Amino acid sequence: MKGIFIDPDSSVVGEHFAIVYAPRRTRGRFPVDCVHVVESADAAREGADDAQKRFAARVLGPSRSSEGVQLYYLVDWLD
To answer: Does the predicted TM-score (pTM) go above 0.90?
Structure first.
């Protein structure tokens, strides 16, 4: 992820598989309440639902934005 750096000695921010609610898949960051972290890529794919705009993804986070909002950053979609 461009511009996001992970401290290898910290467990606060990490990479996760997730189901992401995304009305438009053009965004690169999502509020924490739009992201449901799951155990595996398979679980994310199984929980995805295009009709409800919930997509399988790898995300990085949670991280606090400059506005004080907790965000996850998109690493990639699992299509």
So the answer is: no
